[in-house]
Every structure is written in structure tokens, then in C-alpha cells.
UniProtKB/TrEMBL annotation:
It holds the Pfam family Dimer_Tnp_hAT. Residues 24-85 form the HAT C-terminal dimerisation domain. The lineage of its organism: Eukaryota, Viridiplantae, Streptophyta, Embryophyta, Tracheophyta. This is HAT C-terminal dimerisation domain-containing protein. It comes from Solanum tuberosum.
Length: 88
């Protein structure tokens, strides 16, 4: 008898997992934040504050949004005829 209940509990837990919403779906259902009315909006801070709520999304946001900005033009960065480092 207990084996049947264990199987039912396992089935029910799998059913609950399959019908639950993903983190992305939950995030997209939230109300939008208007950046014009919130001029001091800190996007990285938002994801840091919500990392427990959306753990996978916050990791993705951290990876994408924390890319450092460069001032070097891509053409000069990858050019072979450009700057050559000399002895001095």
C-alpha cells in the first residue's frame, strides 16, 4: 500500500514541475518598469536584488550586462598593419 502512495507522490511532484512556469515566463508577466520615470534605474542592481527570485536569469543578465565597454574601434583592434609594439 505504501508503495502505491510513493508512486502517486512521485507522479504528482513530476506533474507539478511540468505545469509550473519558467523563470522567464514569471519575469515577463511582471509589470514593466518605465525608464523615463526612473532615471536612476540600475539594471545590474535589479538583477542582483532578484537573484533569489530568478537565479538562472540573473546569471545570464550578469554575464551579458557586465561586458566591459571598449573605446578601441574594432578595425584597429584586429588590424595587423596598425600599431606595432617596439622595443621601447
Amino acid at each position: 500500500m505504501t508503495e502505491a502512495f510513493e508512486e502517486f507522490d512521485m507522479f504528482q511532484s513530476q506533474l507539478e514541475l511540468s505545469t509550473s512556469k519558467t523563470q522567464l515566463e514569471l519575469y515577463l508577466e511582471e509589470a514593466k518598469v518605465d525608464r523615463k520615470t526612473n532615471p536612476n534605474l540600475d539594471v545590474l542592481g535589479f538583477w542582483k536584488d532578484n537573484k533569489l527570485r530568478y537565479p538562472e536569469l540573473s546569471l545570464m543578465a550578469r554575464d551579458v550586462l557586465s561586458v566591459p565597454i571598449t573605446t578601441v574601434a574594432s578595425e584597429s583592434a584586429f588590424s595587423t598593419g596598425g600599431r606595432v609594439i617596439g622595443k621601447f
